[in-house]
Every structure is written in C-alpha cells, then in structure tokens.
Amino acid sequence: MIRLRSFQLSDVHDVSQIWQMTASHEQEKETLQVLSKQLGLDRDLVLVAEAPNGKVVGAIVGTLDGSSGFFYCLAVHPDYQKQRVGTRLVNALEQRFLQKGVKRIWITVDEGTEKLLPFYQHLGYTNSCSTRLEKDLLFSCRREIN
Fold it and tell me: In tens digits, what is the pLDDT along the chain, a chain of 146 residues?
C-alpha cells in the first residue's frame, strides 16, 4: 500500500527522477527551486508517496501566503498514475493546509501541466481565469475551504 509522509532529504533523488519524467527541463529547474525554498520555510507542506518497497513514487509541494495555500509540482511516477496517488497527495496537502488555517487553495496550470486541468476540476477546483495573464500561464484554479 502507498504511504504518504513528509519529505526527507534522502527523497531528493527519487523526487527529481519523477520530475524529470513528468516535466520539461525548465519546469524541473523551477520545481527544484520551489522545493528548496519551501523546505526552508515549512517542511510539513512537502509530501511524498512511498511504495511498499520504499521508493518514492509521487510528490507535491505546498506553500502559504496568509490564509491562501498554493500547490505546485504535483507529480506521480508514470508506473503509479491512475492509482489515486495524485488524489491522495492533494487530499493530504489540503488537510495540512486546513490545520494551518487556509481558507482558499490555488493551483497554477501552465503549458506543462495543462493536462492536469481535468484532474483538478474533478477534485473540485474551478478556473478563476481562462485567458493568458502572463507568459505561459493558462489557468489559475482555486477551491474554497469550508
């Protein structure tokens, strides 16, 4: 069974490999920057999914800005996609956001992650815009927390 837990420094290799498989080279570099910044701020908002063999097969990075939460870098190893790993990571991060007083969660969907838009909509996120606001930004999705 897949186990969710907080990121540990020993996970960096597995997480980097997943991002290499699922993101462009430019996005992968940005993702590593977001990861290192967030680890310095609040390690509790960086989650991984671990397979029974101990290998990390998914990751998500969350950040806070006041009462808003943002998540980036949702990625699941191709061999584990369509097995609810991504859904479980999002749900776990949402719970951690709730514990920290978050009222609204935002996701930025760009050209590299546009394929995830139906997944986010399935989870209850709605488009807050549908035009290009800046280079490579296609959608900003949000979900209110009750």
Answer: 899 999 998 998 898 888 878 765 455 456 656 656 666 666 788 999 999 999 999 999 888 888 888 887 788 999 999 999 999 999 999 999 999 988 888 887 766 677 788 888 888 887 765 543 333 434 455 566 65
In degrees, to the nearest 5, what angle opens at C-alpha 92 toward C-alphas 49 and 61?
Answer: 65
In what helix (H) or strand (E) does residue 110 lie, and over which residues does it extend?
Answer: strand 104-110
- Alpha-carbon distance of 13 to 134, in angstroms, equals 32
User: CB-based burial of residue 47 (10 Å sphere; 0-12 exposed, 13-18 middle, 19+ buried)?
Assistant: buried
Radius of gyration of the chain (CA): 14
Which is nearest to 19 in space by CA: 63, 53, 59, 70? 59
CA angle 84, 87, 91 (to 5 degrees): 140
Interatomic CA distance for residues 47 and 61, integer angstroms? 7
Q: In what order do the strands lie in the sheet with 68-76?
A: 3-6, 46-50, 56-65, 68-76, 104-110, 137-144, 126-129
